[in-house]
Amino acid sequence: MFRNKNIPWLIKEALQERSPQVIEDRNGLSRHAAVLIPIFKQDDGYRFLFTRRTGTVEAHKGQISFPGGRVDKQDESLMETALREANEEIGLRRKDVEILGRTDDVRTMSSDYIVHPFAGLIPYPYDFRINRNEVEELLTVPLEIFLESGSAMPVEYQGATYQSLTYTYGGAVIWGATARIMENLVDILLSSVGSKRRRGVV
């Protein structure tokens, strides 16, 4: 479907066409985090970059996630949080990220964070500098994995069972908020491309 297409351009167009759905923090008691959804081109296809968190971080131990973290008071914006955290966790410099737009907020299942995601185009290959206190390894997953429907299945995590959307690639299971962020981004992309095709734009 997307063969030989400029996926980052399509994502940017799709996100500019709409306003993100925001989860309101009515009582001001929710914790907030922002993440970067890094996309890059490798050979003739596009892939997304994920991190596997260490077992020593405060939240989401061992989970597959995007670079990101808690909003700090000194951050000028949610996008600033995502870029700062990506730099701290994997050494991705802000000047090397082209922000494509913001997707819909999600709430985490196990830690009750409101997460604000931003899609960004990054160069690849890249000299990542991994913070080993927070990140165990980097994983890259082809776009095509997320064009297929994810599976709803129970996930055991820290003594609790969560019914979650999941995507599996190379033995890695992407679930929870990260899976829902990817589902949302792909749904936005497909809806935009479908609309453009009906209008004869693409």
Description:
It is globular, with a radius of gyration of 16 Å. β10 and β11 (172-175) form a beta hairpin. The longest helix is centred in the last third of the chain and has 23 residues, at 176-198. Strands 1, 2, 3, 4, 5, 6, 7 and 8 form an eight-stranded mixed sheet that branches. A three-stranded antiparallel sheet has the order 9-10-11. It has a single domain (7-193), classed as Nucleoside Triphosphate Pyrophosphohydrolase, CATH 3.90.79. The chain has four helices and eleven strands. By secondary structure, it is an alpha+beta fold. α1 (7-16) crosses α4 (176-198). It has helices at 7-16, 78-90, 143-147, 176-198, and strands at 31-42, 45-53, 64-65, 68-70, 98-102, 106-107, 113-121, 135-142, 151-157, 160-169, 172-175.
The CATH architecture would be Alpha-Beta Complex
The CATH topology:
Nucleoside Triphosphate Pyrophosphohydrolase
Shape: globular
Helix content: 25-40%
Query: What CATH first level would be assigned?
Result: Alpha Beta
Strand content: 35-45%
**Overall pLDDT level:** 92
Set out the fold topology.
Elements: H1 7-16, E1 31-42, E2 45-53, E3 64-65, E4 68-70, H2 78-90, E5 98-102, E6 106-107, E7 113-121, E8 135-142, H3 143-147, E9 151-157, E10 160-169, E11 172-175, H4 176-198
Helix pairs in contact: 1-4
Keywords:
202 residues; alpha+beta; Nucleoside Triphosphate Pyrophosphohydrolase; 8-stranded mixed beta sheet; 3-stranded antiparallel beta sheet; 4 helices; 11 strands; 35% strand
